[in-house]
Structure formats: structure tokens, C-alpha cells
Amino acid sequence: MRDEFERIFGAAPTGVWAAPGRVNLIGEHTDYNDGFVLPIALPQAVKVAARVRTDGRLRLYSAQGDDVVTDLSVAELAPGAVTTWAGYPAGVVWALREQGHQVGGADLYFDSDVPSGAGLSSSAALECAVAAVYRDLYELELTAAESALLAQQAENRFAGVPCGVMDQMASACCVEGSALFLDTRDLTQRQVPFPLDAQGLTLLVIDTRVKHDLGDGAYAALRAGCERAAALLGLPALRDLPAAALPDAIAELPAELGPLVRHVVTENGRVGQAVELLERGEYAALGPILTAGHASLRDDFKVSCPEADLAVSAAVAAGALGARMTGGGFGGSVIALTPKESAWPVEQAVTAAFLAAGYAAPNVFAVTAAAGARRLA
């Protein structure tokens, strides 16, 4: 990173930072409904070598890009002005200035092994890495949660993606070896031990290679539907609907909104069940909760795809304890909880099923719960 930074920018960086991607164990499309989520950070991360500039220029280079340095004026940053990948890091600098932080330019060199478009929050990793860089370079008084909120504002208001806060909180606040139990209303968080290896279990990520784009309008439409349902029910958010009141609520809503409400309420319940199981050390029992969550996303929220459905069914048939799509949907990745001895047979079975269906072979890899955004050197 240091050598490549110097090759591109002509001088040594001040340091190197990293922020991870994430998978969400359970709690999908609940964050923008003030609900509960349970993500882990991935070992895969966005790394940034950086140094301050004093001329007000923000220069960005990606090792995964087209060998071009994006050169921007910090003073002229505005929503919609940067439409490439550079909009995510530039949006963080814009959000910092919007909140009154006296920050200027920087040279930033990015390298990432978080698969893009795979539903693993590569954009949140970009944003949280830049927030960590600027916090340290400009000596800002920012907590991890405050950095995550800034990153979310960058994605919402600068990049135009109306995401909740879960992805950024996972990338900024996760702890190695634990899952993050997060109340997205008040940002109360608890680290829940997730030592799968010691339990003889493996968590596989199955990247279906179906690229998704949460900025294409479908995600925004789902969020708008949830907010409309809450308003019709006279609630601040769907999080406030008790499970016992769900049948009556669905009966009084327009037909297209009932399934959205059912998913959010039952998914919040699944998060609570998952946390109780993990805290009791019953890690294998998480499997059926994952599979039930996938069925809800597939049938009620309708954000799955044939490749994800096939990955779930093939994984469970081959010995996985449970599986589900993770992330916003419309493509992306599936997670499968398996006994260690079943991990390779599950990978083989899913790959064979994809090839038999005429799909490209998926990218399958095991993950552990990693640490959030941090300085590396």
C-alpha cells in the first residue's frame, strides 16, 4: 500500500487504515424501520493509504479502478456531483464539512478485497474507511457510532441511496469474534459472542455473482412502502407494531403493504430469537432461523432471485444447518451455516446446482467475525 501510494502520489503516506465489509446474520430491511439487526464484520476490507493535502484538493485512486486519479475540489463537493465509485469517499468529506468539521483535502489510495455488488457492503466499507482516515488525520473527536452516522449521511444524501444505518454501524463498530446486536432506533449495541470455529461450525458466504444496485429504485420503493404502512397504522415506525397485533394490522392495510409489514415484524422477532440462542451458546440452532428469514425475504419482501433461492435450497439439502440471502437483495450473496465437515460438500453441491441450472459458478468462501474500522499502520 505504501509503495503504491508513493508511486501514484509521489510521496509517502501518513498511514494505512481499513474498514471491513459485513454480512448480516439476521435482521434484513429492519434498520430503516427502526428495528433490530445482527451483523458481523468480514475479514475482507477496504484499505486506504492516506495523507493530508493543504490545497483543498481531494485526490482518489483505486487499485480496482481504471488507473485514473479522480481530482476533486473539497469546497465544491455537492450531492450528485460525483457519480462514480468516488462518490462514496467524497460524500464522507462532504458530510464532515456539512456538520461543521474543518477538514480539507487528502490523497487517498484504495485497495479492496470486498467483492463489489455482492451484497457485502463494499460501499459502507469505503465510507467508514474514509471516516477513520479523516478522524485521525484531522484529529476529530468522533466515536465509532458517530463515524457510522456520517458515512450513512454520505450514502443517503450524497450518493442518493436511502439505506439504513446497519451497514455503516457494522463496518465501524463490530468487534472481532462477536456479532453486533444493534437497536437502530437509539443505536444501543451489544457485542454477542460468535465463536463458530470453537463450536465446530463454519459460516460460508456464497456470492451468486448476480450484481445488485440499491440505487436503482427498487430499494427506495420498499422503504417508501414500509413508511407508508407505518403512517397508515399511526405508528412512528413498523418496529412499534407488536407481533400480536400483526393480523389485525395486515387486515386494515392495502393488500400490497401487508407482506412488507409481516416481514419486518417477524424479522425483528427472528433477531431476538437469534440473540437469545447465541447468548445461551446454542449456535447450531441459528440455522432454522436463517432459513425462515430467507423465506420471508423471498415471499413477503420479494427481494430474492432464482440464484439465491437455489443456493439456499442446495446448501440445506447438502447438510447446511440453515441458509439465507444477506443484504438488500436483488442479487448479491447467501450465507450458509454448516458443520465444519459439511462445508466442502455444501460448496460442491451449490456449485454443481448452479452449473446444472446454467448459472455461472458462485464464489464460495468461509468467513469469521472480524474487527471494525481501524488504523493498520
UniProtKB/TrEMBL annotation:
Keyword Cytoplasm: yes
Domain GHMP kinase N-terminal: start-end pairs: 89-173
Domain (Galactokinase N-terminal): residue spans on this chain: 4-51
GO MF annotations, alphabetized: ATP binding; galactokinase activity; metal ion binding
A Pfam short name: GalKase_gal_bdg
EC number of this enzyme: 2.7.1.6
Domain GHMP kinase C-terminal: start-end pairs: 274-352
A single Gene Ontology CC term: cytosol
Keywords of this entry: ATP-binding, Carbohydrate metabolism, Cytoplasm, Galactose metabolism, Kinase, Magnesium, Metal-binding, Nucleotide-binding, Transferase
InterPro entries: Galactokinase, Galactokinase_CS, GalKase_N, GHMP_kinase_C_dom, GHMP_kinase_C_sf, GHMP_kinase_N_dom, GHMP_knse_ATP-bd_CS, Mevalonate/galactokinase
An annotated GO BP: galactose metabolic process
Enzyme class: transferase
Superkingdom field: Bacteria
Similarity comment text for this entry: Belongs to the GHMP kinase family. GalK subfamily.
PANTHER family: GALACTOKINASE-RELATED, MEVALONATE KINASE/GALACTOKINASE
Name this protein carries in UniProt: Galactokinase
Species this chain originates from: Kitasatospora kifunensis (Streptomyces kifunensis)
